[in-house]
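lol forgot to send this yesterday, sorry. struct tokens for the thing we talked abt
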């Protein structure tokens, strides 16, 4: 049965999207006309008009009985959560930053602290409508005639098309999340604790619904164990003077306990962009009091980073001191659990960046996903690190730190997310991210190359 979305059932937003697609000359590649992005790789600046997604930013419906939601592809998780929480429901995985879109998380692999039990955002998608390179909007499910697109869409980053609507599963949540921050003095002990929690779903008699962690040094690391609850009590607020990641740290082996509203928990990392707000001085108590609360959010810091890149301000500051531009090291990598401690020790020895985020991950179902071949029934740990390191001296290799990380990740059987800079050769990239299977998807759903190739987007900054 043909599952192309008919003209009579299209929304106004989809009609505007298709009109903007048709307006792009056939000799030009099609891109989003989007002012902001959660990607951290350079992109070519183009004068060609992009896709108009302005009508695809809302929640179409929430079905509390079925625990599903129909959502526009460009709807942010901030707006999605605002629509589901009044029903006591939330998406199965809510990425950490408010302005990540549902379509972006599915095509670009979002992750969060529920991922050890719920996998990745695309695993809760029941069906999706996708604008393909042929100019059609098709409905893809796991078992219809567009099943290849359904399984190939995750990690395609808009190179196969853009989701206009997604139907996703929701799960019940409590009004609050009770936290325990457990300190470890040894990285192998962190890995062993993750293994035990993933296997049992609990820790020392308490259920664990959310699990992530922070490594400050090889002898100071924490796992944060979250439990859904409706219990009342004083709650912490990390949108003001208090900074969430600093609240995790404590002396001694007794876990530090905390209580957040579910809304506060979901966005606990956004206020300070994990810890990256310190680059703007926002963690200085005096400046923090002057910095408007509405500006304490990842989207504002992201715009400041984009401004710095356009103006070259930071690079000029380095040049004034006789130093080369600093190398950006902004990455998330998935490492098999059994190699995580080894990777962390190597990283702490070789890369001058701290803290480091940990987020355990296990695919929710036995399905495999064409362009990001994680193994079912295997636990991985997402390791996130986002900063800069000193640039190369005269005659030294540009991007040496990022390339060293890529090599180490590959040696340990891991995978690297593509939202930031990559330096793989074409053969290396094809071996890691779909290869012939991606070529088949491209020829079927974008035969004329209206969207950039995944390699061109991820490595060549197309």
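and heres what i got for the seq, position by position
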């Amino acid at each position: 049965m043909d599952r192309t979305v008919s003209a009579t059932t299209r929304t106004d937003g989809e009609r505007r999207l298709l009109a903007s697609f048709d307006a792009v000359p056939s000799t030009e590649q099609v891109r989003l006309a989007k002012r902001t992005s959660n990607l951290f790789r350079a992109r070519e600046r183009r004068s060609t008009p992009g896709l108009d997604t302005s009508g695809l930013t809302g929640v179409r419906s929430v079905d509390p009985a079925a625990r599903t939601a129909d959502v526009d592809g460009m709807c942010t998780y901030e707006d999605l959560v605002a629509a589901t929480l009044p029903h006591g429901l939330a998406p199965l995985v809510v990425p950490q930053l408010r302005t990540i879109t549902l379509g972006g998380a599915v095509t670009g692999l979002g992750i969060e602290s529920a991922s050890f039990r719920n996998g990745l955002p695309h695993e809760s998608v029941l069906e999706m409508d996708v604008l393909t390179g042929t100019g059609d909007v098709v409905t893809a499910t796991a078992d219809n005639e567009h099943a290849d697109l359904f399984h190939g869409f995750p990690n395609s980053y808009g190179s196969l098309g853009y989701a206009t609507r997604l139907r996703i599963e929701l799960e019940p949540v409590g009004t609050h999340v009770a936290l325990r921050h457990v300190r470890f003095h040894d990285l192998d002990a962190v890995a062993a604790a993750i293994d035990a929690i993933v296997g049992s779903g609990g820790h020392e008699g308490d259920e664990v619904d959310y699990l992530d962690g922070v490594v400050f040094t090889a002898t100071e690391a924490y796992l944060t164990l979250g439990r859904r609850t409706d219990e009342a009590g004083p709650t912490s607020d990390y949108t003001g003077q208090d900074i969430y990641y600093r609240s995790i740290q404590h002396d001694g082996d007794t876990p530090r306990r905390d209580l957040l509203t579910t809304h506060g928990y979901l966005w606990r990392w956004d206020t300070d962009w994990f810890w990256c707000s310190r680059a703007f001085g926002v963690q200085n108590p005096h400046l923090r009091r002057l910095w408007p609360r509405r500006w304490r959010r990842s989207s504002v810091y992201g715009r400041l980073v984009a401004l710095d890149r356009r103006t070259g301000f930071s690079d000029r500051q380095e040049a004034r001191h006789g130093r080369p531009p600093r190398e950006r090291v902004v990455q998330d990598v998935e490492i098999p659990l059994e190699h995580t401690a080894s990777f962390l020790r190597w990283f702490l020895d070789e890369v001058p960046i701290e803290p480091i985020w940990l987020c355990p991950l296990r695919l929710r179902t036995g399905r495999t996903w064409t362009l990001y071949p994680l193994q079912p029934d295997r636990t991985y740990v997402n390791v996130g690190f986002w900063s800069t390191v000193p640039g190369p001296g005269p005659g030294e290799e540009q991007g040496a730190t990022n390339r060293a990380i890529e090599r180490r990740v590959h040696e340990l059987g891991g995978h690297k997310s593509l939202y930031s800079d990559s330096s793989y050769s074409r053969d290396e990239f094809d071996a890691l991210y779909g290869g012939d299977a991606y070529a088949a998807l491209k020829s079927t759903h974008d035969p004329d190359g209206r969207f950039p190739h995944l390699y061109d987007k991820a490595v060549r900054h197309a």
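The mean pLDDT is 92. anyway ping me if u want another try
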